[in-house]
Amino acid sequence: MEWAARALALLLLLPACASVDRNRIPQQLPLSPVEVTAPPADRTLSPKSPFHALALRAATQRNRGDAASADNHAGILQEADEALLIRLHLFRHSLQRIYIQTFIWRFDRCGRLLMHELLEAARRGVDVRILVDQMGMENDPAALAWLSQAHPNFQIRVYNPIANRLAQDHLSTLIEAGLEFRGVNQRLHNKLILCDGVIGLTGGRNFEDSYFNRSLKMNFRDRDVLAVGHVAADMDASFAAYWDYKESIPAADLADVARWLAAGSGAAALDDYGRSLFSRPPGFANVIAQADDRALIERTFVQSLLSVPETWFIADQPGKNNSRHLWGSGSKSRIVADALDSARRSLVFESPYLVLEKQEKRLFRDLRKRNPGLDIVLTTNSLASTDNTLAYSASYRQRRLFVEELGFRLHEFRPRPADLHAMLDRFPALEAEARSLRLPERYPYLCLHGKSFVVDEGLSYIGSFNLDPRSVNLNTEAGLLVRDSRFAAQLQHQILHNVRPGNSWIVAQREIPLEIRQLNAFFESLSEISPLSLWPVRNTSNFELIPGREAVPPSHPDFYTNHRDVGLFPEIEAEDTLKAVLTSLLKAFAKPVNPLL
Questions:
Q1: Which of 25, 67, 213, 296 maximizes the CB count within 10 A of its CB?
Q2: CA 92, 55, 222: angle at the middle one, nearest 5?
Q3: How far, in whole angstroms, is CA 561 from its chain's centroid?
Q4: At a CB cut-off of 8 Å and minimum separation 6, what does 113 contact?
Q5: Alpha-helical segments (H) within 71-212
Q6: In what order do the strands lie in the sheet containing 248-250?
Q7: What's the CA angle centered on 209, arms 11 and 466, to 5 degrees?
Q8: What is the pLDDT of residue 591?
Q9: Do 74 and 225 contact (CB within 8 A), yes or no?
Q10: Who's near 377: CB < 8 A, 6+ residues apart?
Q11: What is the Cα–Cα distance from 554 to 375, expressed in whole angstroms?
């Protein structure tokens, strides 16, 4: 069974992405000492940028050695167009350095546009460094070979490459997994952009069209946080630790990339290929012009920043931890657990994937036992919206645990929510293009990808951490923790907007006699803990609000009068029936791979 689980996990190597001291919210980043040079105050973001004054002040305070909480500002970025715009603006106006960590970088339109801007920054004299995980890097050794020698100011490294290659060779991967299974599964899931050492972005977004609402198929409903100030010093230290890590390999040192560089006879062809691939792609004239619109950037981003002195950047150590097995959480996982365990009144959590293993179950059980009245609102993807059927099947298997035992108010995001045109404002154009290419009717649609939570309307988190075993134990993660009631109110409003009737379904107990429900719960609980989950009947289902009725929670006596049961897998189109079948099969047989989800 163990080898079967390993084989299945290798085919589906997907990201989900101790005891708890409730008073141990971090005062500083738990990193090993790393030498990081403070940014020169006179080379901190262009004076043409409205961020210049804030950046200059932050650099000056950091050079003076002021307290880390001296002058931090943060703003939430949920809309995809704004997320792309701020990246372009910061890349264009950085003067000294741009450091990036990411799990995915595809050479589609957005990926090529942002890479083009970074190459232009390097040519202006900016030190550009990119660290990307091998699993998520575009499988193009020729392109990486060209990038590795494009400019002296431009460096790119690959995290934890299997068999020292960019291209994923299945036989080599199997051999490596047999020798060091955990090492193969330990991936870089951090998302970080740091500009001139004082302005940082972290959150859930990678570098791909689907993260910026430009995919004809699936687009992610995601979230970043923009941070300006002394907290960027911790981002700087974290990036330095990863950049110097033994498994962060310069692109030119990868075997298949090196072969391209050694082929001298093809140098001209390689150069033509790279220059053509990373020229500015068409279709971005509007956002490119906006990136230099000082008034627009001031109004959209600078004026929306909040002063948030109690702010911490938290990140795992490179390599996550020293465990030889698939368990053993990292430093960030423990800080997240401490933050969740501090809840007394309310916990609002958004996670694309929702799978609990032993330690997370214990955390929520203890939390519920100490605080019976704690309101826990949790939103995740439905089967129709998810990009990870395996992870969804595990979540589906645990529904009884979530709803009946842990008391979650659980919501599943709809692929085409009622607010689709606001969330995906270019939907009409994308839909028209999808129809012209004869794509299935379900395209384009939205998938929830934000990883955020709010504790007691005061402590907030935005980052890369999913509520699943892979984020807890395997992947390295990063994010921003903020204690500020105004910031928390904004974030909670965004999460609760996604769970409004019409945007999400609510998961609740089916309307069946109590005796049958109790008997069924007994067999469901047995199937949850056994390797095989063959009990076919579910106590829970998805519900939607009946038009004209008032939305009430499942505990309300009018819930079943005001809501209707829409089944286990609503809005599964005919061409996606296989997803429902596969979910049922995986629910039954795939529990051994839960630690990899």
A1: 213
A2: 65
A3: 37
A4: 88, 280, 281, 284
A5: 80-93, 109-123, 141-148, 170-179, 181-185
A6: 248-250, 154-159, 127-133, 97-102, 192-195, 199-203, 224-228, 73-77, 306-307
A7: 55
A8: 67
A9: yes
A10: 346, 347, 348, 349, 408, 409, 411, 495, 496, 499
A11: 13
CA distances, 273 to each of 58, 141, 250, 269 (Å): 41, 12, 21, 6
**Distance (Å, whole) CA 227 – CA 410:** 30
Question: C-alpha 229: how far from its chain's center?
Answer: 23
Pair of tokens at residue 156: 């790119």
3-state secondary structure 342-406: CCCCEEEEECCCECCCHHHHHHHHHHHHHCCCCEEEEEEECCCCCCCHHHHHHHHHCHHHHHHHC
Closest CA to 111 of 131, 138, 82: 138
How far apart are the C-alpha atoms of 110 and 106, rounded to whole Å? 8
DSSP 469: H
Sign of CA dihedral 41, 42, 43, 48: positive
Pairing assessment for the beta strands 540-545 and 504-509 based on DSSP bridges: antiparallel
Q: Which DSSP helix (H) or strand (E) runs through 95?
A: none
The pair phi, psi for residue 168, each rounded to 5°, is: -85, 110
Q: How many CA atoms lie within 13 A of 30 on its CB side?
A: 13
The whole-number pLDDT of residue 168 equals 76
Is the C-alpha dihedral spanning 424, 426, 431, 433 positive or negative? negative
Q: Which residues does the chain have with pLDDT short of 50?
A: 1-24, 26-33
Size of the chain, expressed as the number of residues it contains: 597
Question: What totals of helices (H) and strands (E) does the chain contain, helices first?
Answer: 23, 21
For residue 446, the SS3 value is strand
- Can you tell me the distance from the alpha carbon of 532 to that of 489, in angstroms, rounded to the nearest whole number? 42
Provide the pLDDT for residue 39.
81
**Using CA atoms in the order 409, 415, 421, 427, what is the torsion angle rounded to 10 degrees?**
160
Q: Residue 275 in 3-state DSSP?
A: helix
Here the tokens at position 13 are 């190597």
Chain-centre distance of CA 12, in angstroms?
Answer: 18
**Please, is 172 exposed, middle or buried when counting C-beta atoms within 10 Å of its C-beta (0-12, 13-18, 19+)?**
middle
Is 594 in a helix, a strand, or coil? helix
Give Cα 388 to chain centroid, integer Å: 13
Q: How far apart (Å, rounded) are the C-alpha atoms in residues 23 and 30? A: 16
β-strand 346-350 against 248-250: which pairing, if any? unpaired
CA distance from start to end of the chain: 17
Q: Which helix (H) or strand (E) holds 567?
A: strand 563-567
Torsion of CA 319, 320, 323, 329, to 10 degrees: -170
User: Are the C-beta atoms of residues 157 and 149 closer than 8 Å to each other?
Assistant: no
